[in-house]
């Protein structure tokens, strides 16, 4: 009898283990419970009284009891479990995939959520949520020759008075803006602009005298 009951419960348990539609990506297995019903067998023993002839020559009447066993079934409720595929913690189901990471509150400044609670920040921002501006000027003056100015997500370089920006980071003297320099200083500026004009270093050369005359007229 115990074996029959064990077999019945085994069938119920096995029938309760189910797997949902297959997912791909970061998939975990969860056990969920539900209520099922089934019949539990039981055995009831009854005693039936009967009479038979007994005594001298069988003229007497004697009573006896006969044992009878009968099987019954009782409807009962059982808590069953089934296995289901779910997205692992930190991943969201989109369609039949679990490849979309969850970042609570999202990633700011155009950052991308690449793993649970992990943001990849664009240049110029940092922090768990990409909401902290990076001050590029704190490191090596941002690479600027003169002045570095931090901006939201970026920075810019500027030059001191009398200089103009060369490229994005460098500075060079502004020849037009230098109006109070000496002739020799102005010629040095010209020489810097024309490094192969060696005649600019020779006061006796025609090129030197030509520029000297132009500078004196300014």
Automatic annotation (TrEMBL):
Q: Which residues form the EGF-like domain?
A: 99-131, 133-172
Keywords of the record, alphabetical order, are: Disulfide bond, EGF-like domain, Repeat, Signal
List the SMART domains hit by this protein, alphabetically.
EGF, EGF_CA
Return the InterPro entries for the record: EGF, EGF-like_Ca-bd_dom, EGF-type_Asp/Asn_hydroxyl_site, EGF_Ca-bd_CS, Nephronectin_domain, SEA_dom
The answer on whether this UniProt entry bears the keyword ATP-binding reads no
**Which pairs are disulfide-linked?**
103-113, 121-130
What is the residue range of the signal peptide feature? 1-22
Q: Which PANTHER family match?
A: PA14 DOMAIN-CONTAINING PROTEIN (PTHR24050), UROMODULIN-LIKE (PTHR24050:SF28)
Write down what this protein is called. Answer: Epidermal growth factor-like protein 8
Q: Which organism is it from?
A: Lingula anatina
Q: What is the lineage of its organism?
A: Eukaryota, Metazoa, Spiralia, Lophotrochozoa, Brachiopoda
Gene behind the chain: LOC106155727
């Amino acid at each position: 009898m115990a074996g029959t009951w064990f077999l019945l419960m085994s069938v119920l348990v096995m029938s309760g283990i189910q797997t949902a539609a297959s997912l791909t990506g970061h998939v975990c297995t969860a056990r969920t419970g539900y209520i099922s019903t089934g019949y539990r067998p039981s055995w009831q023993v009854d005693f039936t009284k009967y009479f038979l002839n007994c005594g001298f020559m069988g003229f007497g009447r004697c009573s006896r009891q006969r044992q009878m066993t009968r099987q019954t079934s009782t409807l009962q409720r059982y808590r069953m479990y089934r296995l289901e595929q779910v997205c692992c913690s930190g991943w969201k189901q989109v369609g039949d995939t679990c490849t979309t990471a969850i970042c609570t509150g999202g990633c700011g400044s155009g950052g991308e959520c690449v793993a649970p609670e992990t943001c990849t920040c664009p240049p110029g921002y940092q922090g768990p949520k990409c909401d902290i501006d990076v001050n590029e000027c704190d490191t090596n003056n941002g690479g600027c020759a003169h002045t570095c100015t931090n901006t939201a997500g970026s920075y810019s370089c500027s030059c001191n008075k009398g200089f103009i920006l060369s490229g994005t980071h460098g500075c060079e003297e502004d020849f037009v803006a230098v109006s109070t320099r000496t002739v020799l200083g102005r010629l040095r500026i010209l020489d810097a602009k024309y490094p192969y004009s060696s005649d600019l270093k020779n006061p006796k050369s025609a090129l030197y005298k030509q520029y000297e005359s132009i500078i004196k007229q300014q």
